[in-house]
C-alpha cells in the first residue's frame, strides 16, 4: 500500500515521500507520547492474564473495600485497593483495557471505512450522488450522538458488538464530510488532470491517485475517533448498555464506584484516570499525526 | 433575497426533520422486541394484548402505523408514554425547560470563559503567557464533558463537598413554583432562595457541559483575533496611538466574531447532545435523563417525541447561527 501510494504522489514529492513522512512522524513529540501510551496499553491488554495480579472477577468479602497502597489499612499486593465485593481494582482496570481497545480499534476502523467510501463517491461523482449522501449526513447530524448511540444499543441489544455497530453507524459522517471535501479539492489538482489525459478510467483515478492523498488527513481523524469510541463505550457501560457486568469495563467500574463514592472513592477514581489518560493519548496522537502529515502545518 | 434564503433554509430544515422522523420510526419498528410484551402482566389473555396493541395503534402495517403517527403528531398529539402512562407532549413540556436552562447556562459560561481566555491570549501574543495558554487550552480540548462531569463528581463529592451532586432544586425550596421555568420565575417573583438553590444545583452540570465548549471558543476566537491583529487596519489604528487593549476589543474582536460564531453554533448542538449523559450523571430532571429512561424502558412514543424535540432544537440552532453569522458579516448582510 505504501509503495503504491508513494509512486502515485505528484512528481515534486519524489519517490521517498513515504519514508520522509515516517521520519516526520518519529520526530513529532505528540506522536511519540500519545502513540507510546497506546502501545503500552495494547501490550497490557494483550497480556492481561499474565500482568494482572489476580482474577478480576474473584470476590472476597473479607478483603472488601480495601484502600489503595499507601493509605491506612491498605493490604500489601492490592495496589489500587478493592471494591465493595473485594475484587482487585488494578486487575479489573487491566482487563477493562481490553474492551476499551477492542471497541476503539474496530469501531473507528468501520466508521472510517464507511465514511471514506461514501465521502469518496460524493466528492468524486458530485451531482445527485453528492446530493443524496450530503442530505443523509445532514439527517444523521440532526441526532444527538449520545442519544442515538443509546437508542441503537437499546434496539440492537446490549453487548460489545452493538456498541461497535452503534459507534460506526453514528460516526461515519465525521469521515464522510472530511473525505468529501478533500476529494473535491484533490480532484482539481494538476495530477488528476494529468491522469485523465493519460486515459486512466475515473474509478482508477479515484482509488489509486486520489485516495492515497486523502489518507494522511484520514489517519489523524481515525486516532481522534478511537478516543471518541473509548468514551462512548464508557458512557454505554456506565448506563448499563454495554457488555454484561461479568466483564470488567471502565465505564461499568465508574458506575459501580459512583454508588459508593463517599466510602470507596478509588473504585471510581482509578477507571476515570485510565479513561482520561487513554482519551488524551489518542487525542495527542491524532494531533501529532495531523501536524506531521500535513505539509502546510509542517512548514 | 434574504427572505428567499431563509425560506430555502426552512425548507431544507423540514426535509431534514421528515428524514429524522422516518429514521426514528423505522428504527424503532423493524427491530426485535415488543413494547406490548413489557407492559402486560403475566396472566394477560390474547384479547387483552390485542386490545392494548390496538389502543397504541401498533396493530396495523408499518406504513399505516407511520401514517397514524404523523397525522396525530401534526396535531401535537405524540401519544401516551408507555412507561409513565402520561401524554408525551405534556411530559416534554415539563422536562424541556430544565434542559433549556442547563444548556443556556452552559453556553453563557462557555462564551464568557472562552471569550476571556481568547482575549487574554491575543493580548499576551509573543509573551511567555501565550504558550502556557495554548498548552492548557490544548489539553482542555481533549477532555469530553463525560470525563469532566465524573471528575467534578469526584472533586465535589469526595474532596470538597460544597455543592449538591444531584437534582435541579431542593423540593422544599421550590414548592410554590407555578411554571417549569424555575430560573426566570424565581427572578421575576424575587424568590432569591429558589434562585440560589437553582444556581448551586446547576453549577456542576454547567461546568461539565461548558468547559469543553469554552476550550473550543477560546481556541477559535484566539486564532481569529491573532489573524485580525495582523491586518493593515489594526496597524493603522496602532499608528494612530490606540492602546493594545482597545485594539483587541474594538478593532480585532468585531472581525473575529463571525467565524467564531459559526463554529460555536455547531459545537452548541454537541453540547445539547451532551446533556443526555450529563443529566444522567447528575440526576438532573431534563429531557436527556428522561431519554435514557425511555430507551431502557423501550417507551416508543416517548422516544419518538424526545428524538424529534432534539432534532427540532438542533435545526433551530443551525438556522439561528446562519442568521447571526449573516448579521455579523457585512458582505453577506448587503448581498
The class by helix and strand makeup of chain B works out as mainly alpha
- Low-confidence parts of chain B, pLDDT < 50 over ≥5 residues? none
What portion of residues of chain A belong to β-strands? Answer: under 5%
Please give the number of β-strands of chain B. Answer: 0
Structural class of chain A: mainly alpha
- Overall, the morphology of chain A is elongated
> How are helices and strands ordered from N to C of chain A?
HHHHHHHHHHHHH
The biggest sheet of chain B, with number of strands, parallel, antiparallel or mixed sense and barrel status, is: none
The share of residues in helices of chain A is over 70%
What's the β-strand tally of chain A? 0
Could you characterize the architecture of this molecule?
The complex is a heterodimer of chains A (299) and B (335). Chain A is mainly α and 299 residues long. Chain A has 13 helices and no strands. Mean pLDDT of chain A is 83; it is low at 1-12. With 335 residues, chain B is mainly alpha-helical. Chain B has helices spanning 2-30, 35-39, 46-55, 62-74, 88-123, 129-142, 145-159, 171-174, 182-188, 192-229, 232-239, 244-281, 287-296, 300-328, 330-334. At the A-B interface, helix 6, helix 7, helix 10 and helix 12 of A face helix 1, helix 6, helix 7, helix 12 and helix 13 of B.
Amino acid at each position: 500500500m505504501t509503495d503504491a501510494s508513494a509512486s502515485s504522489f505528484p512528481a515534486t514529492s519524489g519517490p521517498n515521500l513515504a519514508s520522509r513522512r515516517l521520519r516526520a512522524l518519529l520526530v513529532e513529540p505528540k506522536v511519540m507520547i500519545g502513540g507510546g501510551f497506546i502501545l503500552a496499553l495494547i501490550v497490557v491488554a494483550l497480556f492481561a492474564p499474565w500482568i494482572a495480579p489476580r482474577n478480576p472477577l474473584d470476590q472476597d468479602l473479607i478483603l472488601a473495600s480495601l484502600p489503595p497502597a499507601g493509605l491506612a489499612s491498605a493490604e500489601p499486593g492490592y495496589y489500587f485497593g478493592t471494591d465493595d465485593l473485594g475484587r482487585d481494582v488494578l486487575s479489573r482496570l487491566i482487563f477493562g483495557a481490553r474492551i476499551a481497545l477492542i471497541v476503539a480499534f474496530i469501531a473507528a476502523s468501520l466508521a472510517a471505512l464507511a465514511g471514506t467510501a461514501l465521502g469518496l463517491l460524493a466528492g468524486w461523482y458530485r451531482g445527485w450522488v453528492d446530493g443524496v449522501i450530503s442530505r443523509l449526513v445532514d439527517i444523521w447530524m440532526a441526532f444527538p450522538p449520545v442519544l442515538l448511540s443509546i437508542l441503537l444499543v437499546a434496539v440492537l441489544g446490549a453487548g460489545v458488538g452493538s456498541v461497535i455497530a452503534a459507534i460506526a453507524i453514528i460516526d461515519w459522517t465525521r469521515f464522510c464530510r472530511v473525505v468529501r471535501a478533500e476529494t473535491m479539492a484533490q480532484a482539481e489538482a494538476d495530477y488528476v488532470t494529468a491522469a485523465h489525459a493519460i486515459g486512466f478510467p475515473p474509478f482508477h483515478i479515484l482509488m489509486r491517485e486520489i485516495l492515497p492523498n486523502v489518507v494522511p488527513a484520514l489517519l489523524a481523524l481515525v486516532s481522534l475517533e478511537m478516543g471518541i469510541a473509548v468514551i462512548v463505550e464508557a458512557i454505554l457501560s456506565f448506563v448499563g448498555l454495554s457488555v454484561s457486568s461479568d466483564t470488567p469495563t471502565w465505564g461499568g467500574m465508574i458506575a459501580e464506584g459512583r454508588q459508593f463514592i463517599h466510602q470507596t472513592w478509588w473504585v471510581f477514581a482509578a477507571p476515570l484516570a485510565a479513561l482520561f489518560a487513554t482519551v488524551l493519548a489518542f487525542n495527542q496522537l491524532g494531533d501529532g499525526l495531523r501536524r506531521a502529515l500535513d505539509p502546510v502545518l509542517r512548514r | 433575497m434574504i427572505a428567499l434564503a431563509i425560506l430555502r433554509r426552512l425548507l431544507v430544515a423540514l426535509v431534514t426533520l421528515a428524514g429524522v422522523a422516518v429514521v426514528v420510526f423505522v428504527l424503532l419498528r423493524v427491530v426485535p422486541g415488543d413494547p406490548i410484551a413489557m407492559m402486560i402482566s403475566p396472566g394477560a389473555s390474547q384479547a387483552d394484548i390485542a386490545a392494548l396493541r390496538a389502543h397504541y395503534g401498533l396493530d396495523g402495517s408499518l406504513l399505516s402505523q407511520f401514517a397514524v403517527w404523523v397525522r396525530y403528531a401534526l396535531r401535537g398529539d405524540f401519544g401516551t408514554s408507555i412507561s409513565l402512562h402520561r401524554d408525551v407532549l405534556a411530559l416534554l413540556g415539563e422536562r424541556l425547560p430544565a434542559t433549556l436552562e442547563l444548556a443556556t447556562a452552559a453556553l453563557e459560561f462557555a462564551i464568557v470563559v472562552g471569550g476571556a481566555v481568547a482575549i487574554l491570549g491575543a493580548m499576551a501574543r509573543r509573551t511567555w503567557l501565550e504558550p502556557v495558554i495554548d498548552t492548557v487550552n490544548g489539553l482542555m480540548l481533549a477532555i469530553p464533558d463525560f470525563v469532566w462531569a465524573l471528575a467534578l463528581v469526584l472533586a465535589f463529592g469526595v474532596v470538597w463537598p460544597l455543592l449538591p451532586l444531584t437534582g435541579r432544586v431542593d423540593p422544599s425550596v421550590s414548592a410554590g413554583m407555578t411554571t417549569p421555568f424555575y430560573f426566570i420565575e424565581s427572578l421575576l417573583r424575587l424568590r432569591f432562595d429558589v434562585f440560589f438553590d437553582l444556581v448551586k444545583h446547576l453549577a456542576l452540570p454547567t461546568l461539565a457541559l461548558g468547559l469543553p465548549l469554552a476550550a473550543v471558543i477560546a481556541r477559535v476566537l484566539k486564532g481569529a483575533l491573532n489573524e485580525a491583529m495582523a491586518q493593515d487596519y489594526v496597524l493603522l489604528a496602532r499608528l494612530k496611538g490606540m492602546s493594545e487593549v482597545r485594539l483587541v476589543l474594538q478593532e480585532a474582536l468585531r472581525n473575529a466574531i463571525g467565524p467564531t460564531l459559526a463554529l460555536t453554533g455547531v459545537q452548541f448542538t454537541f453540547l445539547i447532545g451532551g446533556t443526555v449523559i450529563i443529566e444522567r450523571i447528575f440526576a438532573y430532571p431534563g429531557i436527556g435523563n428522561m431519554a435514557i429512561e425511555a430507551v431502557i424502558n423501550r417507551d416508543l412514543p416517548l422516544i419518538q417525541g424526545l428524538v424529534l424535540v432534539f432534532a427540532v432544537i438542533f435545526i433551530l440552532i443551525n438556522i439561528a447561527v446562519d442568521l447571526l453569522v449573516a448579521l455579523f458579516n457585512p458582505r453577506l448582510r448587503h448581498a
